[in-house]
Each structure stands twice: as C-alpha cells, then as structure tokens.
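Table S5 (text form). Sequence records supplied for joint modeling of the two-component complex.
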Amino acid sequence: MEYVLKIGGSVLTDKNKEKTLSEDFDSILENLKGHENGVLVHGAGSYGHPQAEKHGVKEGSYQGVLEVHRSISELNTEILEKLSEIGLKPVPVHTSSIAYRNPETQLHLDKLSGILDEGFTPVLHGDIVPHKDKGFTIISGDEIVAKIEKQYSTGKAGFCSSVEGVLDDEGNVLDEINSMEEFTDKGMKATDVTGGMKGKVKQQIDEGVKARIFGKDGLEDFLEDRNPGTLVNPSPQ
Amino acid sequence: MEYVLKIGGSVLTDKNKEKTLSEDFDSILENLKGHENGVLVHGAGSYGHPQAEKHGVKEGSYQGVLEVHRSISELNTEILEKLSEIGLKPVPVHTSSIAYRNPETQLHLDKLSGILDEGFTPVLHGDIVPHKDKGFTIISGDEIVAKIEKQYSTGKAGFCSSVEGVLDDEGNVLDEINSMEEFTDKGMKATDVTGGMKGKVKQQIDEGVKARIFGKDGLEDFLEDRNPGTLVNPSPQ
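The corresponding structure-token record, covering 474 residues in total, follows.
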C-alpha cells in the first residue's frame, strides 16, 4: 500500500446541490491514473450529508439509515465507474460492513492488503456504522483514513479537500499543525455532519498519525511526494 | 441470534427473467414479521447469476465485477425496503466487504451479534469476493449460511428454497441427508453459477453444520420449530 487518500465529499460533489458530482472530479481522475497501489476513501458530500441531517442519523435513529447508506453507495458506484474508465480496477469496500463502535470505532481492515495484492484498488466511503447502545451513527472518511494509516503506516496519508490546507487567521495555508490548540476553524459553511476541517485534523491527531491536507491542485504534488498543503503531524521532532 | 435463514434467489426472484422480484416474496415477508432476532442471507437470483455468467466472474475476471456487485446490491436494497415495511429494522452487510479467500473463505462475522443486540436485522447476500491469486470470485449465500452457523451455532439454520427439500429419485422429499453420497441432483434447470441444491447441501456438510432445506410453504414451520423439508445433518447420532 503506497498511499491512502481521501477525496473529500466537498471536492467530489457540489455540497449545496443534492447528488451532483463536481467538475473538479475530472482533474482528480486525471491525476490518479496509474496510481492503483493505494486505498481510496471518499466522503459523502451532497450524497449523504443532507440525508443524514434530515433523518437525524447522527444521533442514532433508524429512520433514514437505509436512505443514507443507499445514497452513499450510489455515489460509490459512480466513482467506481469513473475510476475504472481511467484504467484502475476499483472495488467497493462498504465501511458499514466492516465497522462497529463500542464506543471506540473498530474497523476490520486486514483484507485491504489482499485486495491490493491482486491489483485492485479498494474504495471505502463515509457510511453508517452500528454503534453499541445507540443504534447506528455516522463514520466519516476522515476517521477511516486515520484508522487505515494507523494500521498500515504508509507514511503517505492525504486529504484532497475543497481548501488548500489548514488556514491561519489571515487565510494563509499553514505548513504544519501539531495539535488542536493551533487550529483555526474557518470557512466551513455548507452542511457537514462529520465535522469539516476541524474533525479531519482531530481524527489524525487522536490516532497519532501524520497526514497531509491539500486542495485539488495539490493532488499531483501529493502523489509525486512534493508535499503540498498542510502536514498534520501529532509528533513533531 | 435465534436463526440464520437464506432466502434463495430462486424463490425471491424469477430466475428466468432479469431483475424481477417474485410474487412468493410477499408470503415470505408475511412469515418473517416479528422475527427480527435472526440473520438473513439472500441469493442473487436473476439479479446476479445472468450477469456473473455473462462476464465470467466465476472464473475470476475483473470484467463485470462492478456490474455483479451493483446488481446484487440493488436487490439487497429492494429487500431491505420490503423488510422495513413489515416492521423489521434491516441493515445491509455486504459480503464482499467482509470476505477474503486464500483459498479458504474467511468471513469476518463478529459484529453480526452487535447489530442484533441493537435490535437490527443484518441482511447479507451472495456477492463477489477477493480471492488470492485469482482476482475476484463468487461467494454464494449457501456458503455464507454455513459460515454463520459454524460461528454462532444457532441450531436453526435454514434455506427457503424453490423446492420443498432434497428430493429422492421418485421426487419425494427426504427427511434427512447425511452425506453427499446420498444426494440425488434433480430439477435445477435455470442458470445457477453457485451450484444449486447440490452446492447448498455440500457447503453445510463441508462445514459440519446442520441446516434445514424447505420450500416457501415451509417457512412458517421453520420459524415455529416444526421441522419442514429436509434436514442436512453431517453428524447423525
């Protein structure tokens, strides 16, 4: 496994418009060509967040669980199709099927390496997750990336986001962030039940893994090891 | 977990007609009311077998993997919706996400009990499965039932099939079958890449688990412990 990459729902889809893929996704696809030896994770964007909010899935109700899972699976199917058109052999790994919370999130990720060994590219996604004493809650792609990086230590975990990185008060991209105390929340306006930029950083810090956050124009740099955006680094030397 | 039940693709769908649910499914639903504390598994029937044959997925090619998974997931979605209409809280567990072959089939089933504890009913399905050195192959609902029964020992594993049980040479339903040597293959005419009645029996015998095979009219008897159809019993006393 060479890398683990989340393509944010906010860059994949138009978050203010239900179930619409963004035009940016085409340039992302262009960059992913030939990079089959990694794990992809995608957010839900407009395919999941409005549904999750509407039905209160975040709070654990059953109503809407089916709709949210179906809607996200629909996005997953569309992404798989696009990825196969650029020559990858993507296969879905539905997070809800491998996840359980009690209350810590357990993800059964062992077979990802087996799938990669066969030349296929696993594609996971934000999803519903069974949660002890709470029914179902939502798991974000951010947490999935953190768990995969924790288990596989690729040294190359990344988030292709709708912003260029973590921004300081003046809107400049930080080179590195080491703790939540340094964090400046900014510019996350659209609905995001899974926590936006803050949640993304927190998940990596909580798991103690390094990850890089960058915009769509940083994806090529990320894949070619040129270090775009902000490095989340919970253990600086 | 009180039971594990496979609803055969051949009874769920019209196997000779692509993507059509059968009318029999309504009576099955009627019987399942109130039986939320079990695991359901469904076959693919006309939602998967024609696609798997067409693309040669059984032999491990990539072409068609996406189509087969999508088609089966579509059936799963329809079944979930019907089950929720009768008051169950069904949740999908996509078998391809929890399965790996090396070459023995490994299924990660631990969280099924957690899902049941929350009052939800897990619904698995025949699916594609990553297979070491072979890409992807097909896993049948029959094998899934055998693995679940092996792990959870419900004492109540069943197959609701399009026939009344295992038939002898005269077409009579056998009370019990203990080995493959006793088996008489009969009447399986429509496309079934996963082996029909013979495969169903063999999977249980291979795993050393008991299971009951019956027709749709036997489902109520099965759920009420009245022993319909044929008992597959690999270790008779």
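Note: Chain B touches chain A through 41 residues (CB under 8 Å).
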